Amino acid sequence: MLEKGDFAGIDFEGYLDGEAFPGGAAQGYTLEVGSGSFIPGFEEGLIGMELEEEREVKATFPEDYPQTDLAGKEAVFKVKLHDIKVKDYPVLDDDFAQSLGDFKTVEELKADLKKRRQEAKEQQAAREFEEQVVEKVVEGSSLELTDTLIDRELNYMIQNMEHDFAHRGLKLEEYLQYSEKTLDDLREELRPQAERRVKTDLVLSAVAKAEGITVSEDEIKERLEYLLQFYPPATQEKMMKEQKANVVEGIRSSLEREKTIKLLVDAVQKTETEEKGEEVKTE
């Protein structure tokens, strides 16, 4: 019997209002039940299944699901279970801790995990604060956007959608047909997001120019070396031969953006600290 934590080998196909939808089916898919990999309700609906059992599972797509035609809708998935693998949990002792790195005891391992969780929370909080600062700065800007810039961003966004769909064995045309949309409809739907992106880029570029923010060749080289380590040698060689100029320019833009956002965040934090200091003086 399939339980939470087990690995399930399944075939499934999803239906909306009795009709199969693109990208909602797979054969021989391996899923860790309870991992949260699927939409809410799907994994819970598999618990208790027996080998070769077929079952219909209801699950609802989140309201913020990227595919807007599926967002918030309830789907029915026809699932067949072919395989169950029980996760083999190791014994949490000093030997296990030592096998994971420079730990002598389980307590050292636990302390390290606790520290990492805290760091992750702090990083998430920092990212959210950065987004709020940038949003406020952009909202206060009166920059006028040209249709050319917006259309260029829309083309980029749709191209990314095509790549994403291709990885899932789906074509953009099939998605549009299923969604009962035209390409113009999709562009209009994405337009507000494209406008926000363009305006954000323009505002940050203007701040960087006004503040004299620059990126050195050494900084680019350091970031490039860091990024290349995640690719196999053959891919590294291809990137450096065929795409080096684009890669370097992308790194330059990314570093300039990071420095600009840091400058804005530091300015806001300094202002908040000074305001708190004034409040303390007046009390």
Written account of the structure:
The chain has helices at 42-46, 94-99, 106-139, 147-167, 172-179, 183-210, 217-228, 233-242, 244-282; strands spanning 7-16, 19-32, 54-60, 74-85. Helix 3 (106-139) packs across helix 6 (183-210). The N and C termini lie far apart (66 Å). Helices cover 58% and strands 15% of the residues. It contains nine helices and four strands, in the order ββαββαααααααα. By secondary structure, it is an alpha+beta fold. A four-stranded antiparallel β-sheet has the order 2-1-4-3. The chain folds into three domains: 7-85, Chitinase A, domain 3 (Roll), CATH 3.10.50; 91-140; 142-220, no CATH class.
Task: Supply database-style keywords.
3 domains, globular, alpha+beta, 283 residues, Chitinase A, domain 3
**Kindly, what is the distance between the CA atoms of the first and last residues, rounded to a whole number of angstroms?**
66 Å
- Tell me the overall shape: globular
Number of structural domains: 3
CATH names the topology of the largest domain as Chitinase A, domain 3
Helix and strand sequence: EEHEEHHHHHHHH
Rg computed from alpha carbons, rounded to a whole number of angstroms: 25 Å
CATH class of the largest domain: Alpha Beta
Reported for the largest beta sheet, the result is: 4 strands, antiparallel
Count every beta strand, where a strand is a DSSP E run of 2 or more residues: 4
Structural class: alpha+beta
Tell me the strand order in the biggest sheet. 2-1-4-3
Count of helix runs:
9
